[in-house]
Amino acid sequence: MQKDLKPSLVFAVSIWCIALLVYVCISAVMIFRDKSDMFAAKAAEITTSLDRRIAQNFAFVKSLEVFSTISGVESMKVFGSLVQHIMDACPRIHLIHLYELPKGDGLSHAALVASFPSATDVAAIPAVLPTVINQPRGMIRGFADPRFPGRYFTTTHIENGNAHYAIIMLLDVAEMIKPILQSGAPEVEWIIGSVPAILLNDEQDSFFSPWLRLERTIVPGLHKTASEDVTNFPEGTVFRISETVDLSELFNPLGLAAYCSLSAAAVAAAYYSLHQRRLSQRLRQSEEEALGRAARLEKENRLEHAARVNAIGELAAGIIHELAQPLTSLLSQSQASLKTLEENQTHVDFLKRAMDANVRDAKRAGRILGKIRDYIVNTVAVPEITTLNSAILEIVDILNLEIKQRNVSLVLCLAEPSPVANINRIELEQVIHNLVRNSIEALGTLEQPQKRITIQTIADHTANIIQVSDNGPGLSQDTLAQLFQPFFTTKNSGMGLGLSLSQRIVQRVGGLLTASNKDGAVFTITLPKVEPVPATEPHRMVLAVDAARDRQLEHAINHFTASKRFAG
């Protein structure tokens, strides 16, 4: 929209924004400077008042030294009267204790000579007595103890004759500071010897607090009551005064409102003059967008047509892959039967078995065609309760002859009772058939004497598992990474659709098809567990094949294969 503005209007708006920013900044700086000056005066006043009270506390302790070392009842009366007068005049003083300790004795012999007020609980006060006794004689110190939060001590240690005397004055920090704070007082923090004594008017920090905070830090208590005395606080004592200026206080609402009103009127007049031009530009832009949408729609239609053509090609490839297996089996068995009849051999049992196999393969091809038809009309195969062992035995019956021709041993380890799963039986047989055929073809390229395929069913507590493994060369890492991608194959004549279709079938019922290596390739089908149903057919755990009939069938097929090679 800025491209539609005239250069004069853009320049005017820029000047208006800059002037507004300058006005706000200058106003904020001036107000902040005034706030800083007011804070400095306020901090100086608070500091002076605090130093005066600290010096007063030291003077009280210094005056008590004179009467604390004089023995006698009268001197104690004078000492008590003086203490009472001080505490009445200064509510910040919480208690005053006087201790006496004979020279050479341990702290355990320290005696409490006077306690004001008398009803004060003195159990915790002796805990600070070692600190007082160890401080240099004649020094008046102020310190804080973590065991007395919100309070601090002013103490002195004096010596007279054969005894040590310690005066301990405990002061309430809040009572000492609050009277010198006015309404709207800044934040006050007093740390005595690294021990926090008090924190008043703590303010919640905001995002702008680091830039708007006013702060002053002083070290209080450096006053001397006499030129020869040393009165101080421990190292690390600081008295910090800080105040954060509220962001809203940095602006003059009336001046800002007047400036914004006048400038907004000027901007509104400029906007009205450009309204018609903007309207025409928007109409032109809408026309261009409509033309662009029409062009995009035409491109999308072309892409959709290309996708349909690609889908038809993929479907045709799937049809060829799925029908090639039963039709090849059907053709080889029919040719073997014809060869037997041409040789005038009457193997009725062999022919019956071959015809049964033909019927079974033809039905399977029909089922595959029906499934492809369902795919075309977008019909999903209906899952059913399928017995895993019987589905495996059905595929073994179909592939038994090819397994024997390839000199491969088949090992069945089927769980008892048979696990069941909610999956379409035809689709499950298709998956098992693909996996076993892959193992047969992988072993067919090897020259090792013992070739073995193992089919195992496992009834886990959470899932039912079918494993098809072989003792072949296994799968490389590159092959494992691309194994289930459509059209990926390691065979010279393969189409690369078997495993991708198998994975899609298993995933559609909530299962998982994975591949790994363990002394060869291992394919694992994991299906969700369902409750088993009573078996309606006899259970078969071992594949039984009549030896005589197998020999007859193998002899016929081998004879047919040899004649084909001879003819070629």
From TrEMBL:
Pfam families on file: HATPase_c
Lineage: superkingdom: Bacteria
TM region positions: 9-32, 250-274
EC number: 2.7.13.3
InterPro entries linked: HATPase_C_sf, HATPase_dom, His_kinase_dom, HisK_dim/P_dom, HisK_dim/P_sf, Sig_transdc_His_kin-like_C
Signal peptide positions (record): none
Catalyzed chemical reaction(s): ATP + protein L-histidine = ADP + protein N-phospho-L-histidine
Boundaries of every Histidine kinase domain copy: 318-531
UniProtKB keywords: ATP-binding, Kinase, Membrane, Nucleotide-binding, Phosphoprotein, Transferase, Transmembrane, Transmembrane helix, Two-component regulatory system
SMART domains: HATPase_c (SM00387)
Gene Ontology MF terms in the entry: ATP binding; phosphorelay sensor kinase activity
Protein name: histidine kinase
Organism per entry: Phyllobacterium myrsinacearum
